[in-house]
Amino acid sequence: MVRISFACGLMAACAQQHVGVSTDVTARAEPEAPMGRFTVRGRWENPRELTWQVVPQDGPIAPEILDRFVAEALDVWERTGVVAFRRVAEGQQPTFTISWHGADGSSASCRPFGRDNSVAHSGPLSDGTFIHLDESCDWSLGEGSGESLSRTLQHEVGHILGLDHCADESALMAPLTTASGPTESDLAGLHSLYGGLHGGPGDLLPVAVQQTGTEGPLPFPLRRVAPPGLTEWALFDTDGDGSHEVLVWRTDAKSLGALMIYHFNEEAQLERTVGPLLNVVPPEADTTFMLGVHGDRWIVTEFADGLLRLRSFDERGWPQRPTPQQHLGFEKERAQAIAAPSSGSRGPVAGEGDSLRGDLDGDGSEEFLMRFEEGS
Fold first, then answer.
1. Half-sphere exposure of 183 (CA within 13 A, CB side)
2. pLDDT band at 201 (very low <50, low <70, confident <90, very high)
3. What confidence tier does 370 reach under pLDDT thresholds 50, 70, 90?
């Protein structure tokens, strides 16, 4: 079991995060799939040109052994067919390095080891990023006691590829993991970022509408995020940048009202996620995403007893409790608020059936978002 991993900010202290997953991909039936089965912290423009280097230094494990374990962890992810790694050429800067660190604070990018129970850190998605390993950890190179070096490296490489921690306790990218490789949830995240994987239940497929009126699928569907019969979704500009985000929430009581938000870049490619955010869309209430006449972006939840709960999205697209002034402003303009497009009964549907229409990439042209159906 990997106890803890960090995804570090470049010049900020790390925030504690645990990691975890199970090895049985088929053990969890789709109705029990967690809300937010993967999360994303960034993407590479070309994930097939990533270079790496093990920093030559003394450590608890011989350099040639560490090098072999790193190569094996990279190979696990390469077998997905959408990413590729190579050793950096002499004299060149690697995309990322792997090195030992301790409690002396030798890296300004992360909190020193020993201040919590983390055993590895990974840096942000930019050239020159890193994986740090705790030199004082009791590492296991096989089935013995101690922290699994193989599993830890696989998990940290997942961070390097853009995956963050997920709510699926059986996933390699979960906070505490016993997985021996990427699971269904991990692969759904990777293929949502970089393409690949055959269509399956729960996929949301963006389709571009050309000027000629013809339609064509965009290359990066969201994989396994919206199980049929268990989820609803909306297209809504949560951060006010002029493009729509994809909002997905479960409709069953087990989901705890969790909301996932998927942000896209100018190429209509998944770039980052927010969530899962608990108790935002409670299944026992009627929730609408609304745009106010003055540009405020609201989550309006009305319970059966008439109680009204308001949340407003901030400039980052995160739901917040409104200030008293915002609350008063909402009451004044409530009659003029415009419901955002959403599926089901949560506002007018732009399109028919399991499809919505909006601007995912902010170019002023609309895309359709459709749920995958067998045979489509």
1. 28
2. confident
3. confident
16, 109: one domain: yes
Q: What angle do CA 143, 22, 160 make, to 5 degrees?
A: 85
Reported confidence tier of residue 39, pLDDT bands at 50, 70, 90:
very high
Residue 176: both structure tokens together: 């505490």
* Higher pLDDT among residues 328 and 318, named by residue: 318
In this predicted structure, which of 6-15, 109-118, 218-227 has the lowest mean pLDDT?
6-15
Q: How far apart are CA 222 and CA 197, in angstroms?
A: 11
Residue 177: which CATH number? 3.40.390.10
Residue 331 CB burial class (10 angstroms; 0-12, 13-18, ≥19): exposed
Q: Which of 194, 222, 256 is the C-terminal boundary of a domain?
A: 194
For residues 190 and 182, the answer to whether their CB atoms sit within 8 Å is: yes
Are the CB atoms for 172 and 154 separated by under 8 Å?
yes
Residue with tokens 């994986």: 131
* Rounded distance between C-alpha atoms, residue 281 and residue 174, angstroms: 23
Element containing residue 67 per DSSP (H, E): helix 63-78
Span 176-197, average pLDDT: 92
Closest residue by Cα to residue 96 from 161, 148, 16: 161
CA distance 125 to 44: 7
- Which residue range is the domain that position 70 belongs to? 6-194
What average pLDDT does the chain have?
A: 81
Q: How many domains does the chain have?
A: 2
